[in-house]
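RECORD TYPE: inverse folding
INPUT: structure tokens
STRUCTURE:
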């Protein structure tokens, strides 16, 4: 009899599908139960609590009374999971103690050699074999699994995929296991690119293959080749495919879904924007000492991905929003958990559409066979409606109708705290045709009003970033009368955007009216710019108060944000040559020494302003000298401060005789001498040791001449050595006589040297003649 061979993974999937089918058949044949009896059975089936406890329904957090309730949608995935949450059991006390000790050792990562660490990891994996699901769902041991994943090799990561197979939907929606799955996905992403490029061959770890006999159905284990990481990701997506709509708004599952989307798109994993999209600010950062050095370079750059990943993204976008109409999408756009996922889906859809257009333009004329295939697939493509078409149907033509769904969506999202973020994504990535419609209908007529609003100002700023030079000049003209309101309400990010975009679009004629409006709104004088933008005349928001008060009042949080935006505005003005830089430098010179101290040690944004000022060229040759003189009385205060330490280190990097940047060398010597007086105090703290090392304090103490030579390396080459002494000109004769005397001296010296050389040559010839005569006499 013939034998049909199937892998273990295929058998598990077949068994799971058969089980689901039997469950549906039994549910169809089972008679209707009474509500009381059904509730009692539900309580017996869920002893661990409500399986939907971590899921936030789409309609519960919606504040809009006009939005239709989502309960009437035909698919039940949006509200309750269509799966039974699994309970994997608990570890014994001895096992918990062993894994807890292993977690402590891995956190320190203090192994004598990498080989011993690898041996330790192998032992931990051997002890955890068969207990992986218990580990990831344990509050105390899930951190161990995250550290194991950070230090694991490719073979061990693939073994974890095999251990989690068939349980991914329960794991990604679990409070603790979801973090482990997300870490596994992100750490395994570079392996896909390595295997695709052939840089790293799959490790020869045999997998179990099952041999099925057709007669009696007995199964025998047989080794088989291990699957690639690409296949493992695709099989994981197969498990989650039925529950994508539920994962979009799940409290824990949405993070894993976003991680998978980022991996499938090939985007860099370590970018700031990617990290903020994948995790919240409150997420615990689990790491291992020295793990950053082991990270793959592929995590910091765009990765090559197989074609199957692009197809998977398209399918996820279509499956996730297949049963949603415009009402459901509006609710999801205002959902605190679903909104970030919807942003990512919309951004990926735009990027895929851009890539498709580029490929078509590059290929040019296609072959006849490809044209026929496109014609056959055309009805299916027309039937599938894209996500942007569902959000703003008929755009941009429908924008002109105020009662259309597209216009209602834009107006509704513009003032919503959560929905405005989706509108920002739409503005950033939408095609130019749609953007022009959004600009002409919604933003251009009332741009100055939108920029005043707390929420609508952020989408309006995104619009400013895409304006042409002419449209930007028109927006500046409309917004100039509103600058007093911008300054009063702390809309410094709006003003910063105006200066930045005018610089990018080379609209230099707009700098003067912008600077005049900002100066008039800040008190009418340049000297008031920095004190007003950095709030130097008000109570400081110290870093200690931020740390001690966990729950801050809203006004303190807003003031912290305004301080950051004001400092960014100052840095932007410093980066624009001409009047903007001159205005900020004049304002800095008008500050007192105490105000400079408060700026340098008060917060990170204000200290960054001083660092920027020390590295910016100035038309005033004494600007940097005056600024350092104001810092000099507080050298130790700056050095011991977390933020001021950067300013002290920036002084030594500035040249002493540079073009536009000049910190006199005697001021640097003054600073290092003051640091040397407190050397013992500096060595007691990390900040002090950092400053002492940056200033080469040991070199100053033991080899002063070498320190001077090192400190002058920042200067131009011609200014590193002392100038040679010059001859006195004209022997004290004034004016033209001095010049004439110098010429006479130079001519006299030259003639004297020539005469001396002639005398030496004549004497040498005479000596030679005498020697010849003596030799002739001797020979005779």
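DESIGNED SEQUENCE:
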């Amino acid at each position: 009899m013939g034998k049909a061979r199937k892998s273990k993974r295929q058998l598990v999937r077949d068994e799971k599908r058969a089980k689901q089918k039997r469950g549906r058949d039994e549910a169809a044949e089972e008679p209707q139960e009474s509500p009381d009896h059904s509730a009692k059975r539900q309580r017996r089936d869920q002893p661990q609590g409500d399986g939907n406890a971590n899921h936030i329904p789409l309609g519960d957090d919606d504040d809009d009374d006009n939005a239709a309730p989502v309960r009437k949608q035909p698919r039940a995935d949006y509200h309750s999971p269509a799966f039974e949450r699994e309970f994997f059991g608990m570890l014994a006390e001895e096992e918990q103690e062993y894994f807890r000790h292993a977690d402590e050792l891995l956190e320190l990562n203090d192994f004598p050699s990498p080989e011993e660490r690898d041996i330790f990891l192998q032992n931990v994996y051997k002890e955890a074999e068969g207990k992986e699901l218990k580990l990831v769902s344990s509050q105390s041991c899930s951190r161990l699994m995250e550290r194991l994943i950070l230090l694991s090799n490719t073979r061990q990561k693939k073994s974890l995929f095999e251990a989690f197979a068939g349980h991914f939907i329960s794991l990604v929606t679990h409070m603790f296991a979801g973090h482990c799955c997300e870490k596994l996905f992100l750490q395994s992403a570079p392996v896909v690119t390595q295997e695709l490029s052939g840089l790293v061959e799959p490790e020869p770890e045999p997998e179990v293959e099952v041999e099925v006999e057709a007669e009696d159905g007995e199964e025998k284990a047989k080794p088989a080749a291990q699957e690639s990481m690409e296949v493992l990701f695709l099989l994981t997506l197969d498990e989650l495919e039925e529950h994508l709509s539920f994962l979009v708004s799940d409290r824990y599952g949405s993070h894993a879904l976003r991680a998978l989307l980022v991996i499938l798109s090939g985007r860099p994993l370590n970018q700031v924007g990617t990290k903020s999209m994948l995790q919240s600010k409150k997420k615990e950062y689990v790491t291992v000492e020295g793990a950053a050095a082991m990270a793959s370079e592929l995590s910091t750059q765009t990765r090559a991905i197989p074609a199957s990943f692009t197809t998977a993204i398209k399918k996820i976008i279509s499956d996730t929003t297949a049963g949603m109409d415009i009402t459901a999408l509006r609710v999801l756009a205002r959902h605190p958990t679903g909104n970030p996922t919807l942003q990512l889906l919309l951004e990926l859809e735009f990027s895929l559409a851009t890539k498709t257009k580029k490929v078509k333009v590059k290929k040019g004329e296609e072959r006849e066979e490809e044209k026929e295939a496109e014609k056959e697939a055309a009805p299916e493509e027309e039937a599938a409606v894209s996500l942007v078409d569902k959000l703003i149907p008929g755009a941009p033509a429908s924008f002109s109708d105020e009662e259309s769904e597209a216009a209602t969506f834009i107006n509704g999202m513009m003032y919503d705290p959560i929905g405005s973020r989706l509108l920002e994504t739409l503005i950033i990535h939408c095609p130019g045709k749609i953007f022009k419609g959004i600009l002409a209908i919604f933003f251009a007529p009332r741009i100055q009003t939108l920029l005043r609003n707390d929420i609508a100002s952020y989408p309006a700023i995104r619009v400013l970033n895409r304006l042409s030079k002419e449209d930007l000049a028109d927006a500046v003209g409309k917004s100039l009368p509103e600058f007093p309101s911008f300054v009063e309400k702390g809309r410094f990010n709006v003003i910063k955007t105006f200066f930045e975009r005018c610089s990018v679009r080379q609209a230099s004629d707009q700098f003067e009216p912008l600077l005049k409006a900002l100066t008039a709104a800040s008190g009418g004088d340049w000297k008031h710019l920095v004190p007003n933008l950095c709030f130097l005349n008000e109570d400081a928001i110290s870093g200690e108060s931020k740390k001690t008060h966990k729950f801050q009042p809203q006004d303190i949080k807003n003031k912290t944000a305004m301080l950051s935006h004001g400092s960014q505005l100052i840095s932007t003005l410093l980066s624009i040559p001409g009047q903007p830089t001159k205005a900020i430098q004049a304002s800095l010179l008008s500050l007192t020494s105490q105000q400079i101290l408060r700026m340098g040690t008060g917060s990170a944004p204000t200290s960054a302003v001083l660092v920027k000022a020390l590295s910016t060229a100035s038309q005033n040759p004494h600007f940097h000298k005056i600024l350092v003189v104001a810092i000099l009385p507080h050298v130790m205060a700056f050095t011991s401060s977390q933020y001021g330490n950067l300013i002290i280190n920036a002084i030594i990097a500035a040249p002493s005789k540079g073009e536009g940047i000049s910190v006199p060398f005697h001021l640097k010597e003054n600073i290092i001498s003051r640091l040397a007086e407190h050397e013992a105090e500096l060595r007691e703290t990390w900040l002090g040791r950092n400053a002492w090392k940056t200033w080469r304090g040991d070199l100053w103490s033991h080899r002063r001449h070498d320190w001077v030579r090192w400190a002058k390396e920042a200067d131009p080459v011609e200014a590193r050595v002392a100038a040679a002494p010059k001859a006195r000109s004209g022997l004290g004769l004034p004016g033209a006589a001095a010049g004439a005397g110098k010429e006479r001296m130079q001519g006299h010296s030259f003639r004297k040297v020539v005469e001396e050389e002639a005398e030496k040559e004549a004497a040498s010839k005479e000596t030679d003649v005498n020697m010849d005569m003596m030799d002739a006499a001797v020979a005779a």
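NOTES: The radius of gyration is 37 Å.
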